[in-house]
Amino acid sequence: MKMTKALIPAIAIALALPVAANAADRGFYLGGKVGAASYEDRWIDENDTSFGVYGGFRFNPYFAVEGMYTDFGNIRGSLTPPELGRGSVEPRSFGVSAVGFLPIGNQFSLFANAGLHSWEADPDERLREVIGKRSSTDPFYGVGAQFDFNSNWSMRAHYQRFEFGDADNDEISLGLHYTFR
Question: Of 3.40.50.300, 3.40.50.2300, 2.40.160.20, 2.40.50.140, which CATH number belongs to 27-180?
Answer without folding.
Answer: 2.40.160.20
